[in-house]
Amino acid sequence: MEFNKVVRGAKREMNNEESVYAILDAGFMCHVAFQHQGQAMIIPTAYGREGDNLYIHGSTKNFMLNQILDGQSICISVTHLDGIVLAKSLFHTSVNYRSTVLFGKAVLVEDEEERMDGLKSITENIVKGRWNEVEVGDENQLKATMIIKFTIDSASAKIRNEGPVGDDSILNEVWSGHIPLALKAAQPIQDKKFGVVLEMSKSVKNYYEKHK
Ligand SMILES: Cc1cc2nc3c(=O)[nH]c(=O)nc-3n(C[C@H](O)[C@H](O)[C@H](O)COP(=O)(O)OP(=O)(O)OC[C@H]3O[C@@H](n4cnc5c(N)ncnc54)[C@H](O)[C@@H]3O)c2cc1C
């Protein structure tokens, strides 16, 4: 993986594999940016990471997935919003975040074993342990599913994690500081249509305990 220099706010650049991987592994939703006939497009989707590869998936009829297979260089971004930074001035008002911007190309995964590995990677990245608890899908469902591998050619990571900076000479009584934000899981709600109350599966329980 190569690294792209952050120009504005360069002191927040965290260009190393560890930071890029940590940002990717802390989430499962990315935004995929691509070109279609000169039109910039961006689509949110789920991913799983294996080394420098991100697996994404969808229907074989999925527009975005089919477009990005034309050999174009695409851009994928993942951002975690960690807080709102409220300075005494609007000029220094900001946000805390961890974000990474990746460039690379996508290829269709055709090897059956790798297709399964890709699906498992996506599934496990969303709720760890779920892969062993659910039906993967029948032959037709798997046939209708496309797995794509995006390889990171170059990346950058940018992290802001502090209260307000600047405004040292503003001595008024306006409150300044920051509001930490976090994504939390609420109590899981069981699907009622089967008419039986089931104990939460281990993966769901673990997810809830970790993220509540
Ligand atoms: C958190 C998250 C995870 C997702 N994970 C997956 C996944 O793993 N696999 C998968 O196949 N899909 C996933 N989706 C749905 C995905 O965003 C697309 O809607 C879907 O893949 C269809 O893509 P397409 O290019 O075929 O869309 P099309 O229906 O062909 O798009 C036509 C137009 O509809 C609009 N559009 C498409 N998708 C969206 C959207 N999500 N929001 C608003 N407008 C939209 C755009 O203007 C687009 O140009 C996810 C969505 C979210 C929010």
Overview of this protein structure:
It is globular, with a radius of gyration of 21 Å. Strands 1, 2, 3, 4, 5, 6, 7, 8 and 9 form a nine-stranded mixed beta sheet that branches. It is 21% helix and 36% strand. The protein contains five helices and nine strands, in the order βαββββαββααββα. With 212 residues, the chain is an alpha+beta fold. β2 and β3 form a beta hairpin. Flavin-adenine dinucleotide (FAD) binds next to β3, β5 and α2. Flavin-adenine dinucleotide binds next to β3, β5 and α2.
SS-based structural class? alpha+beta
Q: Which whole number gives the mean pLDDT? A: 96
Q: Can you identify the CATH class?
A: Mainly Beta
Number of helices: 5
Taken from the alpha-carbon principal axes, the silhouette is globular
Amino- and carboxy-terminal Cα gap: 34 Å
- Sequence stretches where pLDDT stays below 50 over 5 or more residues: none
Order of helices and strands: EHEEEEHEEHHEEH
